Amino acid sequence: MTALERFRAIARFERKNDPFLWSIAAWDEALERWRQEGMPVDPKDRHALHELLLGRENQTEYMRPFGAISAQYRFGELRWIVAVNPMFEPEILRETDTHVVEVDFDGTIVERKKDSDASIPRYLEFPVKDKKTWDAYKKRLDPDTPARWPEGWEFMDSRYMNFQLPPELEGKHFRERNFPLGMNLLSLYGNPRNYMGVENFSIAVYDDPLLVEEMIEWQAHMAMTMAKRVIEAGVVPDFVWVWEDMCYNKGPLISPKFVKEHMAPHYRKIADYLRGNGVEVLIWDCDGNIDELLPIVIESGINGTYPLE
Questions:
Q1: CA 123/CA 102 separation, integer angstroms
Q2: How much is the mean pLDDT over the chain?
Q3: Spatial contact of 155 and 173, defined as CB atoms under 8 Å apart
Q4: Is the pLDDT of residue 60 over 80?
Q5: Are 168 and 101 a contacting pair, CB within 8 Å?
Q6: 303 pLDDT more than 70
Q7: Residue of 5 and 159 predicted with greater confidence
Q8: Which residues contact 32 (CB under 8 A, 6 or more apart)?
Q9: Closest by alpha carbon to 187, among 278, 302, 291, 75?
Q10: Distance (Å, whole) CA 122 – CA 9
């Protein structure tokens, strides 16, 4: 089986009692420690790292890491789903011997430890505070920004893959691939929450519901616009990624009622379009205890989950 055939068989539940390990990342600090302890590859060499950690092509059950069409970088390595474009210029606002306060790529002002920049930072200020700041921020969320769609994006190019592309596939259209292809596509809660911060977004649900609804509708508009552009170019992803991270260990950060009324209809519309055009798998990525939200998500047309708890 090719990696593509194997992925589809797993997704369709055609391989019974199939053990499946999907390792996607490790903290930079862990990789550096492994290197110091004798790991034989440079952690910055992602191709070599994938080969070392996930196996090699001649292993029977090896599945090559998937490619991912994103809206900021062409394939994979995207920090957030559907990034702002252009990204904010990095700017150090102040620093001490141990910490630095800076403007992050999405406009958030954060405080980071100098010796551990991969850890979760302390969030100090968020770019979206009200309708006025949202209108300004939304200009960076145009799905048709030319920089999101560099010339030739629909053709395979090893420079933009998160694994070593076989030479025989170089330059060919993605419809000729032999590996699973995903698309980072949708975030109705996760990204708006990042634009405002958890507390501010939660308050805005009650104090400024029209703003919250507009932000969600814009996220759905972005997703549908980009999905159509990809599919109309003859590239049909094997799965799409729906990133939310809207739960913690006790349950949702937003009420199930809100999800059902304000998010599920958008999920359903986009899911119906994707399914009608050959996309079989929609994966909902959410940390925390998802039990209360999972039935709503399934009813809205999503059929895969990637929980982390």
A1: 10
A2: 85
A3: yes
A4: no
A5: no
A6: yes
A7: 5
A8: 43
A9: 302
A10: 42
